[in-house]
């Protein structure tokens, strides 16, 4: 039985070589990812927002409480992390993101679920799994997927990952998902899309086809593009020099 996550599909469709590093070579113990300091800061922001909504009663939430929780989490990071050159800029960026959150979003909200993990068979022989940032309930009783992004809104947005999460939520909870949003914490902007039954049917068909393609893949060529700058395998990538040349030429 195939066991797949929306992230695994996104990696496969973004860069086949990263897919090989992350899901083929990594399983064989040959390649290890290298997290960036920004990844640790971003994970902390997500954890703080999860704890803020799941552990702090609405009548005790405040801007200061949110920032205090972040500062406590930051102080608890390892001494090695604190010694990384330039780590202060990630601290300032994270504070900026949480300041934006507390002023532009409802800190008194009552999410339906916070960071739920689901694993369900959504087609014969195909299990989908993943963890969502947040589920809200719409006034009419349907569900709304919310994904926090510790960055600014890109020019092009691919909602496919959110659609796969919608399939997962519906399979697990037997509740209709009609909306999904990216919340960009750097500037407080929101991107939202509505899901129809036809949208979800097409997403299911595409997911099944992609998994079949994934299983049959033998060649893993690189896709050199701005996403390379954020790849956890950049330092070990066999196309590192070519990436550096394209990055210098195109300015990303």
Characteristics of this structure?
17% strand, five-stranded mixed β-sheet, 9 helices, single chain, 47% helix, 252 residues, three-stranded mixed β-sheet, alpha/beta, globular
Strand residue percentage: 15-25%
Average of the residue pLDDT scores: 94
| Main sheet makeup | 5 strands, mixed
Q: What's the N-to-C terminus distance?
A: 40 Å
Question: Helical content, roughly?
Answer: 40-55%
| Contiguous helical run count | 9
Secondary structure: number of strands = 8
Stretches where pLDDT is under 50 for at least 5 consecutive residues are: none
Give the overall shape, derived from the CA principal axes: globular
Q: Taking strands numbered 1, 2, ... along the chain, how are they ordered across the largest sheet? A: 2-5-6-7-8
- Cα-based radius of gyration, to the nearest Å: 19 Å
User: What is the helix/strand order?
Assistant: EHHHHHHEEEEEHEEHH
Structural classification: alpha/beta
Polypeptide structure, described:
This protein is an alpha/beta fold. The protein has 9 helices and 8 strands. The strands form 2 sheets. Strands 2-5-6-7-8 form a 5-stranded mixed sheet. Strands 1-4-3 form a 3-stranded mixed sheet. Strand 6 (143-149), helix 7 and strand 7 form a beta-alpha-beta unit. Helix 3 (37-55) packs parallel to helix 6 (87-104) and helix 4 runs antiparallel to helix 6. It is globular and about 55 Å long. The mean pLDDT is 94.
């Amino acid at each position: 039985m195939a066991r797949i996550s929306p992230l695994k599909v996104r990696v496969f469709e973004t860069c086949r070589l990263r897919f090989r590093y992350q899901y083929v070579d990594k399983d064989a113990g040959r390649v290890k990812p290298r997290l960036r300091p920004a990844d640790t800061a971003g994970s902390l922001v997500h954890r703080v927002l999860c704890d803020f909504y799941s552990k702090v009663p609405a009548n005790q939430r405040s801007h200061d409480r949110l920032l205090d929780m972040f500062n406590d989490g930051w102080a608890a990071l390892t001494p090695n992390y604190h010694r990384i050159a330039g780590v202060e800029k990630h601290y300032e960026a994270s504070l900026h993101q949480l300041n934006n959150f507390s002023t532009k979003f409802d800190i008194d909200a009552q999410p339906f679920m916070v960071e739920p993990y689901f694993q369900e068979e959504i087609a014969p022989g195909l299990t989908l799994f993943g963890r969502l940032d947040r589920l809200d309930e719409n006034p009419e009783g349907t569900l709304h997927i919310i994904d926090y992004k510790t960055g600014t809104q890109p020019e092009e947005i691919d909602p496919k990952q959110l659609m796969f999460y919608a399939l997962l939520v519906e399979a697990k909870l037997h509740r209709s998902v009609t909306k999904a949003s990216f919340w960009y914490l750097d500037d407080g902007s929101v991107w939202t899309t509505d899901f129809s039954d036809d949208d979800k049917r097409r997403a299911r068909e595409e997911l099944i086809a992609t998994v079949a393609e994934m299983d049959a893949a033998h060649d893993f060529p690189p896709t050199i593009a701005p996403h390379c700058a954020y790849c956890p395998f950049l330092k070990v990538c066999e196309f590192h020099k070519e990436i550096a040349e394209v990055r210098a030429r195109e300015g990303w």
